[in-house]
């Protein structure tokens, strides 16, 4: 099988068209990892493939539907903090936009994350 045209799911789609690296490529990779962490699913599997990501895109207005995509352990841990979880899922989705200009910068992504209060639970 030829590997021409095959890229890692952590690489942004435009890496096939351009040899010049762009900071938005890193934002895309960050979004993939963030969504994997939040959903408990690996993007290389069919579990978090295009249908799930498309469902997230279509349903960003439907917070209940989006929150159901999160790993049950994370949902339980963040019970009562659904807005924070939704903000993280939305950030992940925005980072994997197929339009690089629509992706946030890493600074903007950091600002979203910094607004989320940390848990005061003992470790």
TrEMBL record:
Transmembrane segments: none annotated. Residues 1-116 form the Protein kinase domain. Pfam families: Pkinase. InterPro entries: Kinase-like_dom_sf, PRK1-6/SRF4-like, Prot_kinase_dom. It comes from the Eukaryota. Gene3D superfamilies: Transferase(Phosphotransferase) domain 1. SUPFAM superfamilies: Protein kinase-like (PK-like) (SSF56112). GO terms for molecular function: ATP binding; protein kinase activity. PANTHER family: LEUCINE-RICH REPEAT RECEPTOR-LIKE PROTEIN KINASE PXC1, PROTEIN KINASE DOMAIN-CONTAINING PROTEIN. This is Protein kinase domain-containing protein.
């Amino acid at each position: 099988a030829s590997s021409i045209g095959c890229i890692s799911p952590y690489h942004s789609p435009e890496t096939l068209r351009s040899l010049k690296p762009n900071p938005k490529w890193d934002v895309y990779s960050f979004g993939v990892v963030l969504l994997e962490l939040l959903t408990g699913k690996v993007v290389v599997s069919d579990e978090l493939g295009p249908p799930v990501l498309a469902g997230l895109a279509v349903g960003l207005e439907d917070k209940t539907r989006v929150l159901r995509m999160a790993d049950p352990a994370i949902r339980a841990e963040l019970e009562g903090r659904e807005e924070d979880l939704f903000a993280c899922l939305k950030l992940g989705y925005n980072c994997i936009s197929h339009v690089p200009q629509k992706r946030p910068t890493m600074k903007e992504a950091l600002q979203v994350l910094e607004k989320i209060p940390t848990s005061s639970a003992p470790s």
